[in-house]
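Give me the fold.
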Amino acid sequence: MKIKTGKGTISLAVLLAIWSVSAIASLPGLAISPILGDLNRIFPKATDLEIQMLTSLPSLLIIPFVLLSGRLSVGRDKLRILTVGLAVFFLSGVACIFAKSMAWLIVISCILGIGAGMVIPLSTGLVVDYFTGDYRVRQLGYSSAINNLTLVLATVVTGYLADVNWHLPFLVYTLPGVSLALSFFLRRGRSTPEPEQIDRRKLVGLMLFYFFATYAVLVVTFYASFLVDDYKIDSSFSGVLISLFFLAIMVPGLFIDKIIRRLTRSVNLVSLALICAGLLCVGVFRDKTMLVVGVLCAGFGYGVIQPVIYDKAATIAPPRSATLALSFVMAMNYLAVMVCPFIVDLFRHLFGTHSDRFPFFFNAALVLALTLVTFRRRDDFILGLDESYYKN
């Protein structure tokens, strides 16, 4: 079976290899989530600082290695970088299963973050290497969908495994082994170097926009559980909301090319409006149905924005520098994850409130402001779609 790419065709095995890398890009930190509340029991001597290090240090290390991987990919064999990253990711994931102390778990998780950081920009960089035009847009949508579907499924699986034994959730970190095996179907070779001519102004704009959009919707994952508790709803419902949120992010990727053709220059305007409406729904209503509607709207809006930003990042750089441009953009995701709670807590303090609704109202107000700006700048490359969008 041959798959059309816009540059020719590839085999199904190559496509599966590319998709498998997309599937594992968001795994770091996932195995820790279901056992966070039990860490003090699992490791009675662990300090609060050690627990914070376990959750934050791997994400901190991902950012520089995402950028390093992107930089190394220019003029070098990307497949070698991918293989090394997958090997580090896989081996450290296996080691996590056998870790018996908090100190070793922190060290191994940091190494896992390094391996994941090397792989993450290539999860979209490979799509850009193999596909072009509408085929690339469609595949970037699929890549985003696969990434978020993996999050949904892995979240459910790790939660179940954590009830059996706290070591078992780390089994999800062995999935890079599948990608490592499939990577041997990818073409290997070294292209002749070409000058780096990334449009830096557009790159910075995309980075800021992606950071803002990611920060805005992250309140769902960070604060939904507190809100559900405040509303006196069964605590397990927060897990349902977060799973539905990631599922909603996944769905647009399956037909992103059709969404772009239908909305054209208003694609980001509509997406931001959905995010704003979704956050307001979650903050205003106490009804389960409206909470579900809220997270679905916010997730769907973000699910449209994400692959569009990735495709734009690929168009502002020469082919050999596309992965570097993508690495800068994708690093914003992990930066937003790190700073979101600090930004929200800062403004909570400034406004003198501890309300669990505040993060949703505050971010909805910020998104509304950007939505109004986007309405006036729908022809802009960053906030809308300009006429050069599909030029390669």
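The longest strand covers residues 2-4.
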